[in-house]
């Protein structure tokens, strides 16, 4: 596996209607590096955001979609998504505060 640092693990937050609804339960959704595991994701979230404690991490691997351009077909890049559950006494993540 490549040398993935904690600031390379989290790529961007996922902003959908479902993910915004889960924020009331202190669940936050991020797109993460495809080779990152759950412990790497937990450490990255706790280092990037002050006062945040992670209770658990759920991950999903999404394969790339098949796309065609004429007779040529190919696949888009595969992605990995992580849903991070914070502890009850943890602070909220500020990125999602203004949305």
TrEMBL record:
The keyword Lyase does not apply. PANTHER family: 60S RIBOSOMAL PROTEIN L23A. This is Large ribosomal subunit protein uL23. One of its GO terms (biological process) is translation. It comes from the Bacteria. Part of the 50S ribosomal subunit. Contacts protein L29, and trigger factor when it is bound to the ribosome. GO terms for cellular component: ribonucleoprotein complex; ribosome. It holds the Pfam family Ribosomal_L23. Belongs to the universal ribosomal protein uL23 family. One of the early assembly proteins it binds 23S rRNA. One of the proteins that surrounds the polypeptide exit tunnel on the outside of the ribosome. Forms the main docking site for trigger factor binding to the ribosome. Keywords: Ribonucleoprotein, Ribosomal protein, RNA-binding, rRNA-binding. One of its GO terms (molecular function) is rRNA binding. InterPro entries: Nucleotide-bd_a/b_plait_sf (IPR012677), Ribosomal_uL23-like (IPR013025), Ribosomal_uL23/eL15/eS24_sf (IPR012678).
